Amino acid sequence: MADVLARARGSVLWPVRAYLLLAWTWCRALAQYPVSLLLMTLATSLGVFAEIGAVVVVFVHAGRLEGFDLAEGLLVAGLAATAFSCADMILGMVENLGRHIRAGTLDVMLVRPVSPLVQMATDRFAPRRLGRIVPGAVIVTAALVACDIDWTLGRALMLPVLLVSGTAICCSVWVLGACLQFFVADAREAANSVTYGGQALTEYPLAVYGRDVVRAVTFVVPLAFVTWQPALYLLGRPDPTGLPDALRFTTPLVAVAMCLIAAACWRSGLRHYRSTGS
Amino acid sequence: MTSVRESTDPAGSAAEPVIEAVGLGRDFVLSEGPFLRRRRRTVSAVSDVTLTVRPGEIVGYLGPNGAGKSSTMKMLTGILTPTRGHLRVTGLEPSRQRTRLAGRIGVVFGQRTTLWWDLPLRDSLALTRHMYRVPAADHARRLAGLTELLELGPFLSTPVRQLSLGQRMRGDLTAALLHGPRLLVLDEPTIGLDVVSKSTIREFLLRLNAEEGTTILLTTHDLGDVERLCERVVVIDRGSLAYDGGLDGLRASVPAPRVLVVDLAAPAPPIGVEGGRCVRVDGPRQWLELSENPAAVITRVAQRHEVADLTLREPDIEGVVAALYRGAAVGGGA
Fold it and tell me: Domain holding B220: CATH number?
């Protein structure tokens, strides 16, 4: 029993520890060029502010969108920026899978005793990606203060759960996009339409896109659970597209299901990996 | 060098084979033709490999390009999942227990580095230490030993991209050995290296094998590697083993002819004499493959041509393997 427990702990904790160790080693290596690092971080932050600025412009002109005012719109955009940039920092590098397959570096990763997913995600791990998370988090905080939210204990407790779930869903989408590259060599662009495209989509209250798009991103690629359903929950609104209100409470379940699907696809991809000739 | 064996792991007892493969095979499904009329065709990269390697052996794994060498190596290291057959490496099933296996073996790919291109060698090795969970003290001790043997000192702080091929290969070997593996798998370790670097690496491998008892399996096209390192040679051709045995047995198994090199006083058309078949002409120098006693052939050549010099070449392992690749008749083993 103790043995099983120890192994379970090893199989869960070791990848996390390995991830942190490898990421830290890369950070230290890249910190040898501090000016470049600082400038890159600033530039990344500015990028986020520019994106959110576009959302602000839209709301200032339109006044309200589907009943969402500026502060509520910023809540949605901020949640999108935070979840996507967290996922990008944690697992964004896996989109290079195709390159690793072609260059044969995946073979090298496979003969090391650390999950290739962890190795790929930490490859050239750059702290500048923190520059995307910080502005997102600032905007979410500001929007939460500015919105008229009925702060119950349940809402306060659900907020971190929703953020973690949103990030987990985005991470799963990144991994699923990468898995495509096991089967189709140059699927990176196609995957980006869901990863980066998904971020652009979820920056606005989803109802503006109409009923069919909302259903697609609820039931096919469940990006609606990254920003839209959490925002409806926090604001205590009924769904304007007529989907049942109970959906918003399934967000953590959707996140778990997506992670399981992504893990299964990754494993299957590795088993079917054919390597390249040398 | 200090001992690098794992002591707590019962699976690695000396009697157990390091590699045990029975009927190992891997197929690839290829899709060909235009989109709508695409056909699927199954190709065997490795069709039937049965091989047992015992602890402490150095085995050369030879074969022409496309014979299935790399595919076999990839199955042994867990990169590729076999289509059929039984495979155990240090008692583990590579494709299912790849991560555990990785801690027990060291792998060097001659054509691609396992080091990080942008990091100094020292940092690359530190990353490796974290991945293999080697205690800091063990790491420092082994690194000191390997630094001395492979003379890494002068370039430990150099980014890997600036290393010469020979330096990089020594760095790769170090990275593969810092966790004290019992099996070292080398895929063309001396490819592209100069004579001195080749010899450094060969002597190092022999010493590693003698002092640590590390089992070594290497693929190579360099027959110098084979002659210097391998007591046992396994030849794979078109997915199946063509030979498995000692180097001497390999020589004996293929009747490779001796070659007489004749330097004529002046360039001449190919010499045609009984018992000697001209296989190559380069200016005044000609190569004759002998099918009978050299003395008789030399006499015949000297009778008809003005000869400046003569050399008799014994068949080398290269010629033997080339003959094997061409599909000459061989028994299944030695």
Answer: 3.40.50.300
